[in-house]
């Protein structure tokens, strides 16, 4: 890595947190592998394979002496990465007892699955933190009347809190899929070169039960709940696809949230905020760019690319497996999790810093509310004695004219209700319209209850995962 | 559809079954919609909305009179597909009572989810049928010694049954994800234009509990277990992505199986078989092409394309939603399920017709077995008194030479064991090698037990889904 | 196709034009195939293969009698689609002379390439029509001062015409790539089962030159300029990927345009317009939804999915080729072009109907212009004698305060210049600010010249393709 | 980068060459940026902007003092990467003259395009080297009779050289698309924040021609032939997609070649070879795994993932652009080129080291040749007086029986011709069959001429790019 023009992993360097980096770094992986080898060796010893005294201790003593350059030097000679790491560890320990009865994939499959599994736990933690942030923000804005939009055009009244809870509910679905994956995620286990457990069975002189017992111990060491039984050299790569597609799923709630916040910023309804001390550009101090939300959307595009890679491997196993997937997984697995980590950190930061400009929210509502209430006006006019057809026609003509006048600059404000009050066909007075406006602002159905419902579900999750609830993002670029 | 140069949906026409087509056809959808409207109308009536006598009956009487051309004519006028279908149904019934308090999406979202949900059930049925077929085939070949390959090169002994069970276990993982999705799949429900339930609440004079009760009845009609609470105009499109990614997942076991069967056919170890009466080409009557397996792999590529479409929509919601997803979902949802249906039908057919050529399996084993047993030879030689290093060197030199002689045509058969028997450094007699061969053929670890374990898990599924176990594919092209 | 629950190709039925449908319909393909067979037969006759008198005439007489159902019946028996079509044609003609020395792929590869090639020409025509529409619109709005946005936030002055020309220039890049593809697109030709031309050479008694001459005649019939020389059973599938990726490329200019028009509609700066007679919903007559622009973006997502399918086939050739690509190409090729056709038709319609609300454009400009001119104010203040640092500080404080006051509703209009005029530190009078505004409105650099430059390039294209320039879209749903 | 658990870019570290790394490393990019700033500054000076003496020299003196850590420290404060790099460069030089009249994108867009452009040139060089390797190998094996396969099953005779040339021709198509891209690739140029050139025009006191002249000089510095005229803040991202899709295209010939070589290795027809000193595993010294070919296929999957990212950005421009693409391009652009570099290096290595086992090729041919010649046998039998129907029936029955006997182990060799010679219905003697075999081996049509044709086209390319022809890959892992 000290070679000229070395290139760091940009996702790790710029966006991911130390915790996620530690799972995927070269050093981190070597540490996991060595722990794994020692766990296998202990299991073998406990099940009767002779291991001289002091050997395990010797491995444990050196296991943290990780020198990636030395390992790479070995690999350039052997052209075999696992062999290089075995030799390095054994030379450090002064023994050759690890990796007994194991094939390379007995090591790498399980350790990579362990990285994946722990990374999923990390994603769960931060996703719940995002949910907590959304719930907090939604509760704060639970009752702020708000112009909901469809087709990017004013459609009906809602509340700001409900909009936020809506994105939260999308994330809840993702977290539910994630939880299901965590519970069912199976490890490949110690199955040998083609999955028959031959070498471990041979090591135990044909005792299949001991080979299976060894595997159980190793799985216990990994902390993974489930195991595959009938595999080849590798675990099915469709499992990787399920992992990455679940990441894309989890990222979708934040993705929709970020996209909508970018739209809202364009209308000055809200802003993702500034970090303390941050300013807009010197030329345009007012300019509050949605850089972080744009970045969230960018991370989502990245994740979808890794999903394409994962899908490219799924269902393409030749015989008992080969390594055409190897280089893909070296890139896709770490990078998908590093991008996901950046996405969640960025989302948490936005949730901490975002600002809502309530006055602009109110201005927007007043601009559109009369349009949104035309149906109500008609019902009131009919109640007051107007003919249905006449009322409908009058309202339609005025509404279209007001829209046109606003678009042509003839009027600056929406004066539809003033015009309707002046139209005798409707028979409604100005006070009636004032009442309608007051009532219309509150016409958000059960939006507020939906916010409460969402917050309640989130509080159940945070109760089960208190560390997630308290998690605070690091400083982002 | 009678217009010149009309183009049928090729997946529906050539590959999908009537059951799957009925779910996604224009007629099928209109029927589902009409049932849904009637269910809403009944619910409203039961909850106190006045519906004159005879109205519901009038709708029910005409609900099966589906004329897609008439509806399309209406749409060309209104430029609004839902409005066209409302008008058609109402004109047929002679009433205007359906769709009360509903927005278009209150109809289309739920009906499309119903199509999706029922299609998932259909996929589950056929996936279990594929599992049953794989289990049956694996049990038949449970103990046939077999050259397992990694990197497409002979690696170790296994059994043919284990290879099949291995692909079965990949499919089991997919079916597990599918079951989890079916159990958690949530309907959008009757939430109105922006998700606040405003219009139904208004219809019930502000009684939120009645609006919620109506939704419960409608969900009960759909038969979907879960419901979303806080949505906008649409349900989150990441849910569609979960659906399609689960299809890709389920397709992966069959995909790996088909790819490997194509490889095996190239070695004449097996063939996907012929349908009764089918022959190879007249020019080449011996030629048994893996057309069906190739098609399975093709379907998988198609599904991955629809996954890209689904991913393209996920996390891209603007505000409370819009219809930029509409045309995508019109294509992606039906076509993904139609392709999946074709994939499963084709896989079932292959499982019914495939042939294994055991003699060629045996020939291949004999070609490679001596190589695969070199480690055992060495252990035996050491037991018999040979030095480890000398034995290792002797074996390596002979093995490399035999491989070279076979590749250069010097020998036609693998005579490694004859050469080793003649090498005094090893001190092993010809009989010893014969014993090794006999034992080596059985050197498949616990492959057979893995087959049993797989078959047992499948039998649990087929016990729970007896219709799936008995399902037989239709005739394929 | 008259079977119950038949499903039409939704892209063909709802969105594509008759011209594009005719290229991809079953009837259309059979017609192209028959023409192709006849062309081969004529070539063979001219090069010396005996063909009895009247045979070619007999084929020509029946070539338009296309009965897809009859062909499908044959395929269900033979399980071979090409054989079914040969038999049908021969039975109709009463002769068996076509397909001589040909393998299936000698037919299907070339005919599918012909469909592709002609569809590319159709795409070129409509793309140039879109360019013409963009140029026309850009010239109409060439000088309208406009608030350009980055990060969806006001950034600098531009002109509306320049914005449109910008999307036009993106499309120009795509059209350039398309033209390059059309010029270089190579046909597979008549190469036989594995690409060695064996069967035609045999037919000509070993005369290679005649086999090549026959191919030349066939290519001339196709109208495709280039040919492959060394192929296997199939042409390289990466060529399909180049085709589909070029479609995605061409779709990108319209995609960006549609996305931005959706944003503009949200601000009421513009609208995609209504078709004659179309109104908003009865409940909300003012509501002008960007349905067509949303659909354009949806088509783009669809195309990207077909690109994933095409990429899934590229670089995956086994030996001389197989048919794992077959089902994929049956879906992907027609559907990509049908979607593209719909995208271009929709774009043309939007360009015809879109409206710009100049008054709102002006209001927006006045809201942001003072912010956009702060740099200029500072330079003027310095010229007028103010200290640079003091001026910068004063401007910054006022700008931030005005932005805050607008967001909190304290002021309704941007009164920054009034505040700056009142600040003695700057030493600038109200008239100076009026001049700045007047000048600032024109501060669009060479935007107008860019529009002219774009229009000139488009006019060169339309001069070369006059039919494209005059093309008018059909009516869309 | 010296932080704990730093993660290198795995593609750069393990697979890419120093030349490609230098283009995409942090240091490399900073060097390109500084050269670019200096070029702009010189251009401004030459066109009349006052630049004090010594300033440019001061920048040039320090331009190679690149300290990424220092820059990153600045970015953590400013949260603006370009600002950080400006400050670093200016502080080193002791002046503040660079970046005058420039916005960030005037720097980054052009420099990233320069990286892209130079990387495309590098890809062209190595692609031509791959073509040269394929041509060399194809000429060496031009006349080796060979069993061509379709559906992975023996189909017709070809030559080995033709198979290699076939993959070469696929690559030629890719290189042709690459060349077209290189010739047309346009730079964004110096257009300012929203593309109006405002700031440079202002800098030159309103003189548009000077602003354009400056841009011309800068483009000349870049060495890029074409330029965009009407852009926003950014160049259209569909251009990135064209770049990445072209990489996938170029990778497809190598992809198909590698996949087929993996199949051939499974039949021991060929091997990708070993590096000097490399051996198979100690347990299985004979085992020659297709690791490099598998890796080539893996790189292709990776590239398709980056294509999905690139497609995700195409046609998604909001207004004049934003930075949602930023994080995606930071990952996708370098990593796509680094993967491509690894793919081409690996392919070159395989071409250098691959071995063909001609004896096995011959054995395979003898196994299938009688089947492949049945049509010829029939023609000869008819010539010799046999009835057509009787001959056809006899041949078919024998052929199917031989195929069955081989698959059931009754015969070890294909004895079809012996059986046919013994069948009186055909009236052909043993010698006749010997002649048929001899002739049949040569039945490869114009395969050899196709090889020559391919080699000729490659030689034209290598003549134009002599450095490419001589390029030798580095040592791979």
List descriptors.
homotetramer, 4% strand, Fumarase C, Chain A, domain 2, 477 residues, mainly alpha, Ribonucleotide Reductase Protein R1, domain 1, two-stranded antiparallel ribbon, Fumarase C, Chain B, domain 1, 6 strands
Helix-strand sequence of chain A: HHHHHHHEEHEHHEHEHHEHHHHHHH
CATH level 1 class label of the largest domain in chain A: Mainly Alpha
From the 3D coordinates, which CATH architecture of the largest domain in chain A would you assign? Up-down Bundle
Q: Would you count the extended β strands of chain A for me?
A: 6
Mean pLDDT of chain A: 93
Bulk shape of chain A: elongated
User: Radius of gyration of chain A, rounded?
Assistant: 30 Å
Structural class of chain A: mainly alpha
Family (chains A, B, C, D): Belongs to the lyase 1 family. Adenylosuccinate lyase subfamily.
Keywords (chains A, B, C, D): Lyase, Purine biosynthesis
Organism (chains A, B, C, D): Brevifollis gellanilyticus
EC number (chains A, B, C, D): 4.3.2.2
Characterise the protein shown here.
Chains A, B, C, D: One of its GO terms (cellular component) is cytosol. Chains A, B, C, D: InterPro entries: AdenyloSucc_lyase_C, Fumarate_lyase_CS, Fumarate_lyase_fam, Fumarate_lyase_N, L-Aspartase-like, Pur_lyase. 4 copies of one chain form a homotetramer. Chain A is mainly alpha-helical and 477 residues long. The first copy, chain A, folds into 3 domains: 16-93, Fumarase C, Chain B, domain 1; 104-145 and 158-274 and 288-361 and 452-470, Fumarase C, Chain A, domain 2 (Up-down Bundle); 374-441, Fumarase/aspartase (C-terminal domain) (Ribonucleotide Reductase Protein R1, domain 1, Orthogonal Bundle), CATH 1.10.40. The first copy, chain A, has 20 helices and 6 strands. Chain A has helices at residues 10-14, 18-24, 26-46, 55-62, 68-78, 81-93, 104-140, 160-184, 198-203, 208-222, 238-266, 291-313, 326-353, 358-372, 374-383, 388-407, 416-422, 430-441, 447-464, 466-470; strands at 145-150, 153-159, 186-187, 226-227, 270-271, 355-356. In chain A, strands 1-2 form a two-stranded antiparallel sheet. A two-stranded parallel ribbon of chain A has the order 3-4. The longest helix of chain A is centred in the N-terminal third of the chain and has 37 residues, at 104-140. Chain A is elongated. The model of chain A has no long low-confidence stretch (mean pLDDT 93). Chains in contact: A-B, A-C, A-D, B-C, B-D, C-D. At the A-B interface, strand 1, strand 2, helix 8, helix 10 and helix 11 of A face strand 1, strand 2, helix 8, helix 10 and helix 11 of B.
């Amino acid at each position: 890595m000290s070679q000229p023009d070395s290139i760091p992993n940009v996702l790790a360097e710029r966006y991911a947190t130390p915790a996620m980096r530690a799972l995927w770094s070269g050093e981190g992986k070597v540490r996991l592998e060595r722990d794994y080898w020692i766990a296998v060796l202990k299991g073998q010893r406990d099940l009767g394979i002779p291991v001289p005294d002091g050997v395990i201790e010797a491995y444990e003593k050196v296991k943290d002496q990780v020198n990636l350059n030395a390992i790479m030097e070995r690999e350039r000679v052997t052209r075999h990465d696992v062999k290089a790491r075995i030799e390095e560890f054994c030379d450090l320990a002064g023994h050759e007892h690890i990796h007994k009865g194991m094939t390379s994939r007995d090591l790498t499959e399980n350790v990579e699955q362990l990285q994946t599994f722990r990374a999923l736990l990390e994603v769960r933690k931060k996703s719940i933190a995002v949910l907590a942030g959304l719930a907090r923000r939604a509760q704060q804005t639970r009752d702020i009347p708000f112009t909901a939009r469809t087709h990017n055009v004013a459609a009906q009244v809602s509340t700001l809190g409900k909009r936020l809870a809506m994105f939260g509910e999308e994330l809840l679905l993702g977290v539910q899929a994630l939880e299901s994956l965590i519970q069912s995620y199976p490890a490949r286990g110690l199955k040998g070169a083609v999955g028959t457990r031959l070498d471990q069975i041979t090591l135990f002189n044909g005792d299949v039960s001991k080979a299976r017992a060894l595997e159980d111990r190793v799985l216990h060491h990994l902390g993974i709940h489930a195991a595959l039984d009938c595999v080849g050299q590798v675990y099915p790569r469709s499992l990787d696809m399920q992992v990455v597609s679940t990441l894309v799923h989890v990222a979708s709630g934040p993705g929709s949230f970020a996209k909508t916040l970018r739209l809202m910023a364009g209308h000055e309804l809200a802003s993702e905020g500034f970090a303390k001390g941050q300013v807009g550009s010197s030329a345009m101090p007012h300019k509050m760019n949605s850089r972080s939300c744009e970045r969230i959307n960018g991370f989502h595009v990245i994740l979808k690319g890794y999903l394409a890679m994962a899908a490219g491997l799924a269902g393409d196993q030749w015989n008992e497996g080969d390594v055409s997937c190897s280089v893909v997984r070296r890139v896709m697995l770490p990078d998908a999790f590093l991008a996901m980590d950046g996405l969640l950190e960025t989302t948490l930061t936005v949730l901490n810093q975002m600002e809502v400009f309530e006055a602009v929210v109110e201005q927007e509502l007043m601009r559109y509310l009369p349009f949104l209430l035309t149906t109500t006006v008609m019902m009131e006019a009919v109640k007051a004695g107007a003919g249905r057809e006449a009322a409908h026609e009058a309202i339609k003509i005025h509404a279209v004219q007001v829209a046109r006048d606003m678009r042509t600059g003839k009027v600056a404000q929406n004066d539809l209700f003033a015009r309707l009050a002046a139209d005798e066909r409707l028979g409604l007075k100005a006070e009636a319209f004032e009442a309608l406006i007051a009532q219309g602002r509150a016409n958000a159905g059960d939006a507020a209850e939906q916010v409460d419902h969402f917050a309640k579900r989130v509080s159940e999750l945070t109760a089960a995962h208190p560390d997630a609830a308290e998690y605070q993002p690091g400083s982002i670029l």
